[in-house]
Amino acid sequence: MSLEKVIDKKNTDLFKGVDMQKVPEHVAIIMDGNGRWATKKRLPRSFGHNKGVSVLKEILKVSKKIGCKVLTVYAFSTENWTRPTQEVDFLINLFGEVLKTEIEEIHQESIKIKFIGDLTPFPETLKEIIYSSESLTKNNNKFLLNVCVNYGGRQEIVKVAKELALKSSSGEIKPNEVNEELFNSELLKRGIKDPELLIRTSGEKRISNFLLWQLAYSEIYISDVLWPDFNEFEFLKAIIDYQSRNRRFGGIESLTNESFGDSQYSS
Ligand code: FPP
Fold this sequence. Notes:
The protein has helices spanning 3-8, 34-40, 45-66, 85-108, 124-137, 153-169, 180-186, 232-243, 257-260, 262-265; strands at 26-30, 70-77, 111-116, 143-151, 197-200, 219-222. The protein is of the alpha/beta class. The site of farnesyl diphosphate has 18 residues, from helix 2, helix 3 and helix 4.
Protein backbone atom coordinates (compact mmCIF):
# COMPACT_ATOMS: atom_id res chain seq x y z
CA MET A 1 0.00 0.00 0.00
CA SER A 2 1.46 3.39 -0.91
CA LEU A 3 2.10 6.00 1.74
CA GLU A 4 -0.36 8.43 0.15
CA LYS A 5 -3.13 5.80 0.30
CA VAL A 6 -2.39 5.00 3.92
CA ILE A 7 -2.43 8.65 4.95
CA ASP A 8 -5.34 9.61 2.67
CA LYS A 9 -7.45 7.04 4.43
CA LYS A 10 -6.49 8.78 7.68
CA ASN A 11 -5.29 5.43 8.80
CA THR A 12 -3.27 6.23 11.87
CA ASP A 13 -2.33 2.58 12.26
CA LEU A 14 0.56 2.68 9.84
CA PHE A 15 1.61 -0.83 10.84
CA LYS A 16 -0.96 -2.10 8.33
CA GLY A 17 0.91 -0.25 5.59
CA VAL A 18 4.24 -1.93 6.33
CA ASP A 19 5.20 -4.85 4.13
CA MET A 20 6.71 -7.23 6.67
CA GLN A 21 8.59 -9.03 3.87
CA LYS A 22 10.46 -5.87 2.91
CA VAL A 23 11.53 -4.43 6.24
CA PRO A 24 15.09 -3.03 6.10
CA GLU A 25 17.42 -5.12 8.21
CA HIS A 26 19.65 -2.17 9.13
CA VAL A 27 18.47 1.43 9.57
CA ALA A 28 20.89 4.28 10.26
CA ILE A 29 19.63 7.50 11.84
CA ILE A 30 21.00 11.02 12.11
CA MET A 31 18.99 12.24 15.09
CA ASP A 32 19.01 15.95 14.30
CA GLY A 33 17.13 18.93 15.66
CA ASN A 34 17.30 18.54 19.44
CA GLY A 35 18.68 22.05 19.94
CA ARG A 36 16.20 23.74 17.60
CA TRP A 37 13.30 21.90 19.22
CA ALA A 38 14.28 23.22 22.65
CA THR A 39 15.01 26.74 21.39
CA LYS A 40 11.59 26.90 19.71
CA LYS A 41 10.05 26.10 23.07
CA ARG A 42 12.31 28.64 24.83
CA LEU A 43 13.93 25.82 26.77
CA PRO A 44 17.64 25.09 27.28
CA ARG A 45 19.09 22.85 24.53
CA SER A 46 19.61 20.10 27.13
CA PHE A 47 15.82 19.58 27.21
CA GLY A 48 15.97 18.68 23.53
CA HIS A 49 18.66 16.08 24.15
CA ASN A 50 16.70 14.60 27.08
CA LYS A 51 13.57 14.34 24.94
CA GLY A 52 15.75 12.86 22.19
CA VAL A 53 16.63 9.94 24.43
CA SER A 54 12.99 9.00 24.98
CA VAL A 55 12.41 9.19 21.21
CA LEU A 56 15.33 6.84 20.65
CA LYS A 57 13.75 4.35 23.07
CA GLU A 58 10.46 4.53 21.15
CA ILE A 59 12.19 4.03 17.79
CA LEU A 60 14.18 1.10 19.15
CA LYS A 61 10.93 -0.56 20.24
CA VAL A 62 9.14 -0.05 16.94
CA SER A 63 12.19 -1.18 14.96
CA LYS A 64 12.22 -4.46 16.86
CA LYS A 65 8.47 -4.79 16.48
CA ILE A 66 8.58 -4.64 12.67
CA GLY A 67 11.50 -7.06 12.43
CA CYS A 68 14.37 -4.69 11.74
CA LYS A 69 17.62 -6.12 13.19
CA VAL A 70 20.12 -3.27 13.47
CA LEU A 71 19.86 0.43 14.32
CA THR A 72 22.92 2.66 14.02
CA VAL A 73 22.50 6.12 15.51
CA TYR A 74 24.70 9.19 15.37
CA ALA A 75 24.88 10.41 18.96
CA PHE A 76 28.08 12.48 18.90
CA SER A 77 30.18 13.40 15.90
CA THR A 78 33.88 14.29 15.81
CA GLU A 79 32.69 17.84 15.01
CA ASN A 80 30.44 18.06 18.10
CA TRP A 81 33.49 18.90 20.28
CA THR A 82 33.28 22.44 18.88
CA ARG A 83 30.02 23.03 20.79
CA PRO A 84 30.13 25.02 24.03
CA THR A 85 31.86 23.02 26.79
CA GLN A 86 28.67 23.05 28.84
CA GLU A 87 26.74 21.24 26.09
CA VAL A 88 29.57 18.77 25.41
CA ASP A 89 29.76 17.96 29.13
CA PHE A 90 26.00 17.60 29.28
CA LEU A 91 25.97 15.13 26.39
CA ILE A 92 28.85 13.09 27.81
CA ASN A 93 27.08 12.92 31.15
CA LEU A 94 23.80 12.05 29.44
CA PHE A 95 25.32 9.04 27.64
CA GLY A 96 26.52 7.66 31.00
CA GLU A 97 23.22 8.32 32.77
CA VAL A 98 21.16 6.77 29.96
CA LEU A 99 23.32 3.68 29.96
CA LYS A 100 23.13 3.32 33.73
CA THR A 101 19.35 3.58 33.81
CA GLU A 102 18.50 1.69 30.62
CA ILE A 103 21.08 -1.08 30.35
CA GLU A 104 19.10 -3.66 32.36
CA GLU A 105 16.06 -3.26 30.11
CA ILE A 106 18.26 -3.29 27.00
CA HIS A 107 19.78 -6.55 28.23
CA GLN A 108 16.41 -8.08 29.13
CA GLU A 109 15.18 -7.28 25.63
CA SER A 110 18.19 -9.23 24.31
CA ILE A 111 19.60 -6.15 22.60
CA LYS A 112 23.32 -6.00 22.00
CA ILE A 113 24.77 -2.50 22.33
CA LYS A 114 27.99 -1.41 20.63
CA PHE A 115 29.72 1.97 20.62
CA ILE A 116 31.46 3.00 17.45
CA GLY A 117 34.02 5.77 17.35
CA ASP A 118 37.16 6.87 19.12
CA LEU A 119 36.41 6.63 22.83
CA THR A 120 39.88 7.87 23.85
CA PRO A 121 38.91 11.46 24.78
CA PHE A 122 35.93 10.46 26.93
CA PRO A 123 36.21 10.39 30.74
CA GLU A 124 37.27 7.05 32.27
CA THR A 125 33.94 6.78 34.12
CA LEU A 126 32.01 6.90 30.82
CA LYS A 127 34.41 4.45 29.15
CA GLU A 128 33.87 2.01 32.03
CA ILE A 129 30.08 2.22 31.70
CA ILE A 130 30.38 1.76 27.93
CA TYR A 131 32.68 -1.28 28.22
CA SER A 132 30.54 -2.91 30.89
CA SER A 133 27.36 -2.33 28.84
CA GLU A 134 28.98 -3.84 25.78
CA SER A 135 30.28 -6.75 27.79
CA LEU A 136 26.92 -7.42 29.52
CA THR A 137 25.05 -7.49 26.21
CA LYS A 138 27.68 -9.08 23.95
CA ASN A 139 25.86 -12.40 23.55
CA ASN A 140 22.42 -10.88 22.94
CA ASN A 141 21.07 -11.73 19.52
CA LYS A 142 17.61 -10.23 19.04
CA PHE A 143 18.78 -6.80 17.99
CA LEU A 144 21.94 -4.72 17.59
CA LEU A 145 22.09 -1.05 18.60
CA ASN A 146 25.20 0.74 17.36
CA VAL A 147 25.77 4.11 18.98
CA CYS A 148 28.24 6.29 17.11
CA VAL A 149 30.11 8.59 19.48
CA ASN A 150 33.11 10.75 18.59
CA TYR A 151 32.59 9.17 15.22
CA GLY A 152 33.48 10.55 11.80
CA GLY A 153 33.16 8.70 8.50
CA ARG A 154 36.36 10.13 7.03
CA GLN A 155 38.30 9.37 10.20
CA GLU A 156 37.02 5.79 10.05
CA ILE A 157 38.16 5.40 6.44
CA VAL A 158 41.60 6.87 7.20
CA LYS A 159 41.92 4.50 10.18
CA VAL A 160 41.20 1.47 7.99
CA ALA A 161 43.63 2.74 5.34
CA LYS A 162 46.33 3.05 8.02
CA GLU A 163 45.63 -0.46 9.37
CA LEU A 164 45.84 -1.97 5.90
CA ALA A 165 49.03 -0.02 5.11
CA LEU A 166 50.59 -1.36 8.30
CA LYS A 167 49.55 -4.93 7.48
CA SER A 168 51.00 -4.47 4.03
CA SER A 169 54.32 -3.09 5.23
CA SER A 170 54.67 -5.93 7.74
CA GLY A 171 54.02 -8.44 4.96
CA GLU A 172 50.74 -9.71 6.47
CA ILE A 173 48.93 -8.78 3.25
CA LYS A 174 50.05 -7.85 -0.24
CA PRO A 175 49.05 -4.37 -1.54
CA ASN A 176 47.07 -5.90 -4.39
CA GLU A 177 45.04 -7.95 -1.90
CA VAL A 178 43.37 -4.72 -0.70
CA ASN A 179 39.83 -4.81 -2.01
CA GLU A 180 36.34 -3.75 -0.92
CA GLU A 181 35.80 -6.93 1.07
CA LEU A 182 39.00 -6.53 3.06
CA PHE A 183 38.31 -2.84 3.60
CA ASN A 184 34.79 -3.65 4.74
CA SER A 185 35.98 -6.23 7.24
CA GLU A 186 37.93 -3.52 9.09
CA LEU A 187 34.98 -1.10 9.26
CA LEU A 188 32.51 -0.95 12.12
CA LYS A 189 34.22 -4.14 13.20
CA ARG A 190 33.25 -7.38 11.52
CA GLY A 191 30.95 -7.06 8.56
CA ILE A 192 27.61 -5.72 9.71
CA LYS A 193 25.36 -5.46 6.66
CA ASP A 194 25.30 -1.91 5.25
CA PRO A 195 22.20 0.13 6.19
CA GLU A 196 19.48 -0.17 3.56
CA LEU A 197 17.96 3.04 4.87
CA LEU A 198 19.31 6.29 6.30
CA ILE A 199 16.85 8.55 8.09
CA ARG A 200 17.78 12.14 8.87
CA THR A 201 15.43 14.31 10.85
CA SER A 202 14.99 18.09 10.96
CA GLY A 203 14.90 18.57 7.19
CA GLU A 204 18.67 18.84 6.71
CA LYS A 205 19.80 17.14 3.52
CA ARG A 206 23.38 16.22 4.37
CA ILE A 207 25.24 13.07 5.37
CA SER A 208 27.47 15.06 7.74
CA ASN A 209 30.41 12.65 7.80
CA PHE A 210 28.22 9.73 8.92
CA LEU A 211 29.01 6.19 7.70
CA LEU A 212 30.51 7.45 4.43
CA TRP A 213 31.55 4.00 3.24
CA GLN A 214 28.52 2.09 4.49
CA LEU A 215 25.91 4.46 3.03
CA ALA A 216 27.14 4.01 -0.56
CA TYR A 217 23.86 2.42 -1.70
CA SER A 218 21.50 3.31 1.15
CA GLU A 219 18.16 4.91 0.47
CA ILE A 220 17.95 8.32 2.14
CA TYR A 221 14.80 9.55 3.83
CA ILE A 222 14.69 13.13 5.07
CA SER A 223 12.03 13.91 7.65
CA ASP A 224 11.19 17.54 8.34
CA VAL A 225 10.26 16.61 11.90
CA LEU A 226 12.79 17.56 14.59
CA TRP A 227 14.19 14.51 16.39
CA PRO A 228 12.41 15.18 19.73
CA ASP A 229 9.08 15.18 17.83
CA PHE A 230 9.94 12.09 15.79
CA ASN A 231 7.92 9.05 16.78
CA GLU A 232 6.61 5.62 15.80
CA PHE A 233 4.27 7.16 13.19
CA GLU A 234 7.05 9.15 11.50
CA PHE A 235 9.37 6.13 11.57
CA LEU A 236 6.77 3.91 9.92
CA LYS A 237 6.23 6.60 7.28
CA ALA A 238 9.96 6.39 6.52
CA ILE A 239 9.79 2.58 6.31
CA ILE A 240 6.78 2.66 3.97
CA ASP A 241 8.45 5.28 1.80
CA TYR A 242 11.58 3.11 1.65
CA GLN A 243 9.48 0.11 0.65
CA SER A 244 8.10 2.05 -2.31
CA ARG A 245 11.60 2.67 -3.70
CA ASN A 246 13.08 0.74 -6.55
CA ARG A 247 16.58 -0.25 -5.39
CA ARG A 248 18.78 -0.85 -8.42
CA PHE A 249 22.33 -0.54 -7.05
CA GLY A 250 23.47 1.18 -10.24
CA GLY A 251 21.78 -1.38 -12.49
CA ILE A 252 18.57 -1.16 -14.46
CA GLU A 253 15.57 -3.20 -13.40
CA SER A 254 14.58 -5.94 -15.85
CA LEU A 255 16.82 -4.69 -18.64
CA THR A 256 16.32 -6.61 -21.83
CA ASN A 257 18.20 -6.19 -25.09
CA GLU A 258 14.94 -4.96 -26.54
CA SER A 259 14.57 -2.17 -23.99
CA PHE A 260 18.16 -1.14 -24.78
CA GLY A 261 17.19 -0.84 -28.41
CA ASP A 262 18.83 -3.98 -29.75
CA SER A 263 15.77 -5.05 -31.72
CA GLN A 264 15.81 -1.71 -33.53
CA TYR A 265 19.50 -1.56 -34.33
CA SER A 266 20.68 -5.14 -34.59
CA SER A 267 20.94 -6.56 -38.00
C1 FPP B 1 21.49 16.45 17.33
O1 FPP B 1 20.72 17.57 17.64
C2 FPP B 1 21.61 15.52 18.46
C3 FPP B 1 22.74 15.27 19.16
C4 FPP B 1 24.03 15.92 18.87
C5 FPP B 1 22.75 14.33 20.31
C6 FPP B 1 21.86 13.14 20.19
C7 FPP B 1 21.99 12.30 21.40
C8 FPP B 1 20.99 11.65 22.00
C9 FPP B 1 19.59 11.69 21.54
C10 FPP B 1 21.31 10.83 23.21
C11 FPP B 1 21.52 9.37 22.84
C12 FPP B 1 22.07 8.65 24.01
C13 FPP B 1 22.51 7.35 23.99
C14 FPP B 1 23.19 6.78 25.17
C15 FPP B 1 22.33 6.48 22.84
P1 FPP B 1 21.41 18.99 17.61
O2 FPP B 1 21.88 19.33 18.96
O3 FPP B 1 22.46 19.01 16.55
O4 FPP B 1 20.20 19.90 17.20
P2 FPP B 1 20.24 21.24 16.35
O5 FPP B 1 20.75 20.88 14.98
O6 FPP B 1 18.82 21.68 16.34
O7 FPP B 1 21.14 22.19 17.08
